Amino acid sequence: xxxxxxxxxxxxxxxxxxxxxxxxxxxxxxxxxxxxxxxxxxxxxxxxxxxxxxxxxxxxxxxxxxxxxxxxxxxxxxxxxxxxxxxxxxxxxxxxxxxxxxxxxxxxxxxxxxxxxxxxxxxxxxxxxxxxxxxxxxxxxxxxxxxxxxxxxxxxxxxxxxxxxxxxxxxxxxxxxxxxxxxxxxxxxxxxxxxxxxxxxxxxxxxxxxxxxxxxxxxxxxxxxxxxxxxxxxxxxxxxxxxxxxxxxxxxxxxxxxxxxxxxxxxxxxxxxxxxxxxxxxxxxxxxxxxxxxxxxxxxxxxxxxxxxxxxxxxxxxxxxxxxxxxxxxxxxxxxxxxxxxxxxxxxxxxxxxxxxxxxxxxxxxxxxxxxxxxxxxxxxxxxxxxxxxxxxxxxxxxxxxxxxxxxxxxxxxxxxxxxxxxxxxxxxxxxxxxxxxxxxxxxxxxxxxxxxxxxxxxxxxxxxxxxxxxxxxxxxxxxxxxxxxxxxxxxxxx
Length: 495
Hints:
This protein is of the alpha/beta class. It has a domain at 91-110 and 233-469: Rossmann fold. It contains 21 helices and 15 strands. A six-stranded mixed beta sheet has the order 3-4-14-9-10-13, with helices on both faces. Helix 11 links the parallel strand 9 (260-265) and strand 10. The protein is globular and about 60 Å long. It starts with a strand and ends with a helix.
């Protein structure tokens, strides 16, 4: 059955999956959502016999219905190959009674690789399908991981340019170094003097600028996005939740039909929304545990029905979650209104103009499978330390947020369901904070000494992404003020 996509705000006509992927963001500022969520109509028992590529095909083919089977297989086979350091692609590690879904085995050792390895192939295939002649300009804001993963995926891909904005003091040293050393003649990195929300708002403003769009087309360019606002980012993420269920089936930890819970460290809301879509497709999922750090706007939202970004912004040890405007929540808002795009548009207008909105009781009931919880910095460091002492397993601060909130949830509810925790980054990406949590003696170590120490403590070899940083040269050093973002894009593209 063919699935079409429409804007959450109702201003765009329905479009195909490939055209929605090319556009990234709808012209009215809304996000593309499918007209309906397709059912996963294969027996759950069949999952146990599938490798990651097979699971990805079965999930993605149900959403991206205007791609042929050959086109999808081409995209999947080229994305999920030897660039991942494990044949499983997404390894499931059991520790202290939970199952940590390791989504960091790609080139940039963070979960964004899982979707951004395939997005360039989905996008270039879409351009060919739709006879697009303009060069595609990927314009993206990052809180640390998306930017590097997107650049690694799009570097030197013919017919594309990629421009990444990031908050100058809002990412970890390793995240920043990974971005500013990125190779590729078509890659461009710009730091802004502001936080991630400023970067994301600036990018959305550029997308919505009609004069900019007109100038782009005249110069032979068109914008698209690699952020999770792009449906081509979101759909591939659904696959790894199905794969985690397949792994549990294969290992005998569950039988087909058993209900699991899923815990996700959440910033921009795309990763946990993918888990929600997996549930709507028919994956047996009970609660979706939305874990926030000190920037706990989502926790308050799920507990009160009020979204309010008018609060103090914290820079934390989990910078990819340092977000007060969770863009993908708009998709859930639209769904909870049962498709009332005018209501969704009004709520988003209120968020823009006042920084807050409140949903109805009926909308809250429609998202009752979500549980919101948060962990502050002390709790994050304590969870890294506790889990290591208990099981010898080392996790990064983002995963520690999820792990800490998972334990709060079980203590509060007594829910015994097997739980998959999305482990979204390698501890090597946040070595200094991880080691500080384990033992203060490491604080005086140099970066290289810390990498070596983490290898010894964790028993996990230093990933190639980290080894390569030791000799990588800085190629990008532009820093701009927020109002200068549009001009920096024009300068890069010479328009």
